[in-house]
Design a protein that fits this description.
Elements: H1 8-35, H2 39-45, H3 47-64, H4 69-77, H5 79-111, H6 118-135, H7 137-161, H8 180-191, H9 198-202
Helix pairs in contact: 1-7, 1-8, 2-8, 4-5, 5-6
Amino acid sequence: MKPMKPSFLQAMMLIMLSVGLISHVLIIPALLAAAKRDAWISVLVSAGPFLLFVLMLAYVSRHLQHQTLHEWFTDRLGRPVGLLLKITNSLFFLSVIYFTLHDTTTWAKTNYLQDTPVIATSIALMAACGYTAYKGMRAMAFTAGLLLPLVVLLGFYVSIVNMQYKDYSRLLPLLENGWPPILKGSLYSLAGLFELLFIWYIQPHLKSRI
């Protein structure tokens, strides 16, 4: 009996955790550094390109059906192109793994694990991720379904308890440094979109089409 494949909802929870880590933990500091008090305008500016990107994702996903990108390119453009894509994908995902691990362990050490060696945190994270990946997509999706509600609740908790310290008058004046910092900040905001490409890679492992 084949194991049950995860649902679309479980897959979206997995994507939300991934995008949340990149956009919330790693991109926001760079966004604030680039656009300063107008960083929120950068997010609004990125809404248009974001919509176009999502439409492109939906269009490609519809044509992929339950094929992987490697299979789709191999069938239409030949094995050499498929092999090149496979190598490129491998290098891309290895770079994502490295930078995510590096930034996550650095962030953890800076915030709450000052006395813990980075190597210990790295090994623990790699072991947990490796075991979950070994168990398959269903295990990853199930884990995301357990973690995401907790992450969301903690996020709202932090937001609410810090409400007393928020001073929205600091958002003014608008466009103090013109549009260039805002446009630069929108590039950081859009950087989180690349995480949504993972939809193409997990789609063949789902029980229903996206």
